[in-house]
Structures are given as structure tokens and as C-alpha cells.
Amino acid sequence: MTTHTSADTFPRQYARTLRYTVGAPRSFSVAPDGSRVVFLRSRSGSDRANLLWTLDTATGEERIAADPAVLLGGGEEDLSPAEKARRERSREGSAGIVGYALDGAGRLAAFALSGRLFVADLVAGTATELPAEGPLLDPRPSPDGVHVAYATTAGELRLTRVDGTGDRALVRPDGPNVTWGQAEFIAQEEMDRDRGHWWSPEGDRLLVERADDTPVNRWWIADPANPDREPAEVAYPAAGTADAEVGLWLLGLDGTRTEVAWDRAAFPYLARVHWSKGGVPLLLVQSRDQRVQRTLGLDTATGATEVLHEERDDVWLELFQGVPAWTPDGRLVRISDESGARSLVVGEQTVTGADLHLRSVLAVTAEEVFFTASGGAAETDPEPGWIAVGRIGHDGKRLSWESANGRPFTSVTTAVHAAGVTVRATAEPDLPGTLVKVARDLPEGVVVDDIAVIASHAETPVITARPVFRFAGERRIPAAVFLPTGYDRERDGLLPVLMDPYGGPHGQRVVQAHNPHLNSQWFADQGFAVVVADGRGTPGRGPAWEKSIHHDFAGATLDDQADALAALAEEFPLDLGRVAIRGWSYGGYLAALAVLRRPDVFHAAVAGAPVTDWRLYDTHYTERYLGHPAEVPEVYDGNSLTGYAAGLERPLMIIHGLADDNVVAAHTLRLSSALLAAGRPHTVLPLSGVTHMTPQEEVAENLLLLQVDFVKKSLGI
């Protein structure tokens, strides 16, 4: 890690380093022969531009494979609006090379830089630009390394040869709002699917998404600070409205086209595509209400599909990375809630039990499945928040774990496996940053850390987080408590409390790590006892825990914040007469909800980018949890904030980026209007030109300072 400058304060450093992610290695791949690891990393903790690197697994030597400063001749990056939107969907704040794809041998890498196409020969150590129509997105080499397919902002899917010849359109848009080869908004934002084209293992054709967002409502994101600028048009599929029409086609390099057929009326969501040598291409499609999904096998000769597995759930079905997939001998691998636990299924056999909560599949080998998991039965877990890499035989035997320094509790932030080589990034509560180790399997199947540690250039934080982990209350709510550095109970007495949750789906905050808790520790060092609680709906505790919020954001998630607070006050020095709450996005919703519904518990709130009316949020997320607004309007009324406006009697600050196209500023404006109509004083802080991520350094720094000032004044500190 690199050191910080003596003039740094935590807010300044935290903002400048993008929460200490700048300079840390990321985006790992292992070559199919295990000879090299490929990854991204910038030169330092203050340089946001990622370079492409390789590590030789025989020697541990690192080498630069592509340097954006060299490739662009020292010039600045020029990002298209489509690329900026894609990065917003993926919460990508860095620069330079932010993604890449490899050929089948792991020798050739393709990537976009400033909307242009580049390839790197990872063996020779050379990188070159290829002629291409730009601005372009998501270039992907064919498995044989002969071609690169890429999407353009004009909606085309194009093909070029790696030798620099033959650039041509494989397919062009057949309508004004049609794109080929790109993931649509909902796939990127909610399904964790950011790609829209997939090569066949032989490299002779592709599966290509065609998306038409003509049916989607148009919203307009204006810049009030610059009224001379034209508002940006956004196709936004709000709850209860139309989604983009998504189809899939087989495209041959010779120009042949075959449409893939499935019941798109009943299963409009294309959630996953998998094409490997283990079997026919797999599609995972979902119904609009996400209670039924099918794994389909594709006949590549005709485009017809066959139902290989259908799964149903009375509440909803989750999506997972790495599945569905094939074992090399043709058995279907998936993650399922059918047993009541979140389990790994190979063929017809459920191979993990209720003591594990599966999170993703990393790799499927001839004998084993590599996966990430956390504790499924909280009663058996001594501490919350651990995530580990496991491996298990296809028959459910030989379960083992990838150790991390012999520590029982860690948080695996990312991992990949191929050809007997595992790259694993782990974090620990008392160590800043992450440790990335490259390990090799011995013939007996034992894993040893005998290859290398990939260095991190991330800056060392100027403060140290000191989380104390607990399961709180009868429901054993995962929680972390932070006290001021140097706090002495006998001297300092009870502390005002700041609840600091996300508290909703897909947002686990209580993890066995250090850096994710730095923000909370800084707030604690301003004189607070800070509590982070992962109540019902957050991941890592099993399907029943996550699905207990069905139709009930406003009840279950808020109740668990209040219950965790009360339970922790029995052990920690919490002044329950001075309690504030802050959060962003779902956490912002929860913070505003707290002072609107439970002023007896929460005495002030800072709500950042809150969803205030769930009818204004997108289809796939909102309808999964709350249903269709036309069918259950009372659920939307009961879970939205505007209906509770008249009940505000505590200080509330609402912060919102006016350029936010995820949670649009209309959410805050509607709540503010309702509060004003009810005669309830409140504070609104509009952020001109700021999106949902608030990546601007000065904005991110000052937001922390303003929140502390508001909370202190509100609590009379």
C-alpha cells in the first residue's frame, strides 16, 4: 500500500481515493493453462487510471500489458454518453482500462479505451489499436483469437479481425431505439448482467441480444444549474410500466441469422446466458413477477429451446453469478432455494446443506465446484459477516475451504479459479485493504499459497476502523458497533448514537473487513456511537431472512433497526435519548422512514438519494419485492414516504444529485412538496451535476462534513 500525505483528512482521502479502491488490484482472470493471471491496477492510490497487468504464475513476476497513458499518447479520455451511463450502472468510478475480455487461450485481451478498440498480446507484452467504428462498447475476442466482436453506441454489433483487417457490421439496428449486442438498462442495473453478446466455444458464431426500448417511458433529466443545456432523455422502465423488448439471435460470421425462440410473453427477462463446451447454450429466463424461471437449452441449428429445469417460488427467485452452468460431463449446476436453504445443486443432487448460504459459483471443474458462501444458520455462527471460498465434489463430498492466513473469520471480496490456480482477495477487520493471493493446487487437491501476493497500491487510511461485531436481539440481527477512538466509558459516559445502515436487499454492510467500516469509524470519532445493522432483507442469512420483507419494506427493515438499537444498548454506551440515522439510496429511504414513522426512537435523519415513491423506481427491483402497482396499490402506498409526510416532527435533511438517473431527483422533490404542504420544516440539499454515485471529490468530502454538522445541531451536541 502507498502512504498518504500529512495534510490528508479522512474525508478528503476517502473521496480522493474512491473509498480506498484506487490502486487496489481488481478484475482478475486466470489463463486456461494456469500460466498467467490477468488483472487491472493503477500505479498508485491517487491515480485513477487502471493499467492492464499480467502475473507469471511460474515466477511471480508482474508485467504491464497495456498502459492507457501510452496508448492515448498522454491525451485525456473521451467517454461517450453511453459509456458514462454504462459506468453509472456498474458503479464504476475509475478511469483508464476499466474492463477487458480474453480469448480462449488467455493470450489475447481486448478492451475499450476512450471509445476506441485495443488488443494486448499478453505473451509478447505488446498492445495495439485496431481500426474500429466508435465510440464502441464491450469488445470481446473470439475463443480462437482471430476476431473481436464489439458493440457501438449507434446500436450495431461489429466484427473486426485481430490482424487489423475486415472491420464490418455483423448486424445493424432495424429500428430507431434498437441496439444489438448490449445489455439493456434493467439487465445492467438489476440483473448484474452487463454483456449482450457471447461467442460460441468454436468462435464461428455469436449469441447476440437485440433490445428495443421503444415501449419504455421517456424521462428527462435536466440540469437546473445550466438552463441553456438540453435535458437528457432517459428510457426509464418504472414499476408497472413497460420494459424494453429483449430477444436473442444466433449470428454466424457468414451473415446467417437465426432467432432464438422461447415464450417471451411469459418470460420476458433474459437473466443469464452460458455457452461452454459442457453442453448446449443455456438461457435463464424469468417471468415478470420473478416467481417462475426456466433454464433453457438451445438448439443452435434451429433456434428452438427446451426447458431443462423450471423453478417456482411463492415470493421471488434470486439471480446468482456463475449459474446456470454445465459440468464437463454434462450435468446442470445451479443455486436453488428449493430446499429452504440457499444450496448448490449439481444435476439432480443438492450437495450443500442448511449450514451454508451459497452466494456465487466461481468455477466448475471435472471433479469440483468452487463457490462463495456464508453461514446459513446464524445460530451456529460465532460472528456475523464472514464470506469464504469453498470447493466441493459433484457428489457433495470432499467439502473444503480456502484458508486466509489461518484466520477463522474473513470476508472474501472476490475470487476466480482456473487450471488449478485460485486468485482470492480477502479482507480482515484489523487489516486495512485487501490481501490478494495466488495459490496453486497440489496433486492431492491441497491448496497452498506458494505462488505470489499481488501488491496493492491503495493508500493506507489515516484512521483505523474498530468494529465490534454482534448478533443483536432475539432475531440475531448482524451488527457492528463503533466507539470513538480513545473512548473511556467512565470518563465519557453515554454517547449520542448514529445509526448508519443500508438495510435493504443486496446491501450487506456487516462484513468481516476493515475498509468498508472506515466511514462509520470516522463518524464515531466525531463523538458518536455508530451502529450498523443488517436487518431482514439484507443478504447472507438465508432465503427466509431475505424474503421476509416481501411487500413490507416499511415494516420489517425499520423494525430491525429499532430492535438492534435497543438490544445493543444493553451492552454498549448508547444514549437512547439522542439517536440519529443516516443512509444513502435504500439507506436514505430507511433514514427518512425512521423519523417519519418512529420519532419515538429516531430524533434526526440524513437521507441521501432516497426512494420516496416506489412507483418511480424500476420494474425488476421494485416488483420483485412489492409486486405490481396495479395489482397491489395499497402496498405501494404503505411503503412509500410521501403518505407519512404529515407525521414529521424531527429534523430531516434530504440530499439528492440532480443528475441521478437511477433514483431520480423527483423522489426528493415529491417528498419535499408533501412535507411543505403539511407544514413540516425540513432541509433539502440539491447537488448540481451529481449522479447516484457522487464521485466528485469535493462533493463527497463536504457531504461528510455537512452531515456531521447537521446531526450535531439536531441532537443538541
Automatic annotation (TrEMBL):
It comes from the Bacteria. InterPro entries: AB_hydrolase_fold, Pept_S9_AS, Peptidase_S9_cat, Peptidase_S9B_N, Serine_Prot_S9B/DPPIV, WD40. Transmembrane segments: none annotated. Signal peptide: none annotated. Residues 518-716 form the Peptidase S9 prolyl oligopeptidase catalytic domain. Residues 114-358 form the Dipeptidylpeptidase IV N-terminal domain. Keywords: Hydrolase, Protease. It holds the Pfam family Peptidase_S9. The keyword Disulfide bond does not apply. The keyword Repeat does not apply. SUPFAM superfamilies: alpha/beta-Hydrolases (SSF53474), DPP6 N-terminal domain-like (SSF82171). This is Prolyl oligopeptidase family serine peptidase.
